[in-house]
């Protein structure tokens, strides 16, 4: 079918935007692959919502016998981008109207020079959030992560997500923009909607089954873990000594001469967890000071074994896209800590 799109209201405001190059502008007629609910209707474009080098997004209204409905038109710089995004929306049909905007079709036309042009039509829902994701309230963060989890379960993963990709009407959330999206097999079993804010590190194991979601949750400060600072590094307090005097007296100076970076961070954690267990068993700080060489040797041995196991597990979780050499310095992303 063909769809008429009228840009006269935009023409009065802006003479230089992507639709200007479409043949017939300001009243264009394009082919559409998705008749309902656009059959026997037209779209009156009202203004430009945003413009980037990849696309221009317009606000408009569907004009027809069924009444007026707010719409969004997205004209892509490349037709293959429009076709790919349209396909992604079709693959997520079950999420439309609840997790992502409703998709109303892929339209195609030609420019004044005979080149192909394409775009997609979506429902207009809410507005992009006006804060960085890190500054949003925790309930909103949980809803964003839950939406992303559902998108992952549908077999797709957006390459990036920011405030411009999160739409809110004050009650609900929608994720939009699937231009740069890749196939994804998600193994996460974590319940973000009901997750506690203050957590223990081991409680995040189900979340780690999807590194992409875990990384996003960490970046936006979704979790809080009580911390202790040792030699400038923050660690979860559980299973670690927290008395600064004890930490200083048992400081393993040898490690600083041999290790650095993430190796030092994880080795210090292993060492001080051993120290904590020894103190809990009744040994004194003075006894442990006399036994520090053996304690450091135990820590190095345990750390080496766990490091090899982590590489193997990470390789299994994150699939063959990463080389083993890229994982040598792997450690979980830093979480938001609580003093």
UniProtKB/TrEMBL annotation:
It comes from the Eukaryota. This is Protein kinase domain-containing protein.
């Amino acid at each position: 079918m063909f769809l008429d799109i009228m840009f006269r209201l935009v023409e009065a405001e802006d003479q230089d935007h992507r639709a200007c190059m479409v043949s017939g502008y300001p009243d264009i007629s394009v082919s559409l692959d998705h008749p309902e609910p656009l059959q026997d209707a037209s779209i009156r474009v009202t203004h430009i919502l945003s413009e980037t080098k990849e696309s221009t997004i317009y606000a408009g209204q569907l004009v027809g016998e069924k009444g007026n409905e707010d719409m969004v038109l997205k004209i892509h710089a490349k037709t293959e981008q429009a076709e790919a995004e349209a396909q992604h929306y079709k693959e997520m049909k079950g999420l439309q109207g609840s997790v992502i905007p409703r998709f109303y079709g892929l339209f195609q036309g030609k420019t004044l020079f005979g080149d192909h042009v394409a775009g997609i039509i979506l429902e207009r829902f809410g507005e992009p959030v006006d804060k960085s994701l890190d500054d949003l309230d925790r309930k909103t963060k949980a809803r964003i992560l839950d939406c992303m989890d559902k998108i992952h379960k549908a077999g797709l993963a957006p390459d990036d997500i920011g405030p411009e990709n999160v739409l809110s009407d004050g009650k609900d959330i929608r994720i939009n923009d699937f231009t740069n999206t890749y196939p994804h097999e998600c193994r996460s079993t974590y319940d973000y909607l009901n997750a506690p804010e203050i957590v223990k590190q081991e409680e995040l194991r189900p979340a780690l089954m999807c590194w992409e979601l875990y990384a996003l949750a960490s970046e936006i400060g979704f979790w809080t873990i009580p911390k202790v600072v040792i030699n400038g590094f923050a660690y979860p307090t559980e299973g670690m000594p927290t008395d600064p005097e004890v930490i200083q007296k048992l400081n393993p100076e040898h490690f600083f001469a041999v290790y650095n970076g993430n190796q030092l961070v994880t080795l210090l954690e292993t060492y001080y967890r051993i120290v904590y267990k020894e103190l809990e068993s009744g040994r004194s700080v003075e006894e442990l000071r006399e036994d520090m060489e053996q304690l450091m040797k135990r820590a190095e041995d345990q750390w080496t074994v766990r490091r090899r196991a982590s590489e193997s597990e990470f390789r299994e979780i994150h699939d063959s896209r990463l080389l083993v050499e890229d994982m040598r310095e792997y450690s979980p992303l830093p979480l938001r800590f609580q003093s």
